[in-house]
Amino acid sequence: MAQSSNVKPRIHIQEVGTRDGFQSEPRFIPTADKIRLIDALSLCGLSKIEVTSFTSPKAILALADADEVLRGIKRQPGVVYTSLVPNLKGAERAIAAGTDELNLTISTSETHNLLNLRMTREQSVARLFEVVDLAKATGVTLNVSLSTCFGCPMEGPIPEAVVLGFAERFLNRGVEGISLCDTTGMAHPDRVRQLCGAFRARFPQAQLTLHLHNTRGMGLVNALAGIEAGVDRFDASLGGIGGCPYAPGATGNVCTEDLVHMLQALGHPMDVDLPRLLAAARSLPELLGHDVPGQVMHAGRAQDLHPIPGSLEAIRERALGSTSNPG
Question: 20 to 30 A Cα–Cα from 170, which one of 122, 133, 246, 297?
Fold first, then answer.
């Protein structure tokens, strides 16, 4: 159900930059630096941090230190530390390293799933059901990220019935949360309102996350459309880092600090400490070796006023003098 225009729902922000962002980086970020950044993010009031991915190091070398990172972080009460896992072996590693949650992924596009995961959607479902059964026996919670929900760059729009059908299969299996992912940045506000509203109407008790990318500059407005449709959880990436190999020229995920800045300005209650978050974001260029897309980290918050220049009084006097002596 959509939110009343008079109600400002509490919003939960979930950081994915340390997984979704770092996996796209061309150079390996030292393990100690990853841990240091995650520890800083843990103090920012985020609801969840996607720490890493327990994928084969041959597939994603940038996250080859997943075990060390997850074991090395300082955990803060109230923060859920989640890990992306592709299969049963990855899930076993993540559970052994102490993950709070397993995040599973499958594409709602057959073409994208074959290209990204090297298997059909039904093969993915069967493999992920094995992980679900394992998690049930260990008490670890589960989230399933449904990729390309708002469009596939090869197939085009994905039918709503297909997206909701996959969500239903995993929810019926005992999964607690579903993420609707705009993997390649093809979403627009009307589509977001429609799909998220339909999800909320059909699965009112499920924990719903909206995972947005800013590929075409619509990440923030799509987040507002999601809130209108009843979404209160958002994935976002520090500095706006990340991307998708199947969206050529794409920028990264929607930027965490830009999203928080906008929603706090609109009066949405949340637990995020924006100054701490900005400090973490401003550490990224040195850490990564390049600038990042985030805007508020460069411009500052709208309420951060600049000092009045010392030359103002002289300018005022000249302006008043020219008015009193027009000739």
Answer: 246
Q: Rounded to an integer, what is the distance from CA 304 to the centroid of its chain?
A: 26
Mind spelling out the 3-state secondary structure of 165-183? HHHHHHHHCCCCEEEEECC
Cα 42 to Cα 71, 78, 131, distances in angstroms:
14, 9, 27
Within a domain: 276: yes
Residues 67-98: tens digit of each pLDDT? 999 999 999 999 999 999 999 999 999 999 99
Q: Is 152 labeled as catalytic in the residue annotation?
A: no
Place of tokens 């809130």: 227
Identify the band that residue 295 occupies on the pLDDT scale cut at 50, 70 and 90.
Answer: very high
pLDDT in tens, 25-53: 989 999 999 999 999 999 999 999 999 99
CA-CA distance, 14 to 232, in Å (whole number)?
11
**Average pLDDT along the chain:** 94
Total structural domains within the chain: 1
Q: What share of the chain is helix, strand, coil (3-state, %, to 5)?
A: 45, 15, 40
Query: Are the C-beta atoms of 150 and 110 separated by less than 8 Å?
Result: no
Distance CA(100)–CA(80), nearest Å, equals 6
Task: Point out the catalytic residue in the list 152, 181, 244, 255.
Answer: 244
CATH of the domain at 240: 3.20.20.70
Q: For 174-183, what is each residue's pLDDT tens digit?
A: 999 999 999 9
Is 6 inside a domain boundary?
A: no
In whole angstroms, what separates CA 18 from the centre of its chain?
A: 10
pLDDT of 252 higher than 90: no
pLDDT of residue 284: 97
Print the domain residue range for 27. 12-324
202 membership: H or E segment, kind and range: helix 189-202
Residue 267 and residue 224 in contact, taking contact as beta carbons nearer than 8 Å: no
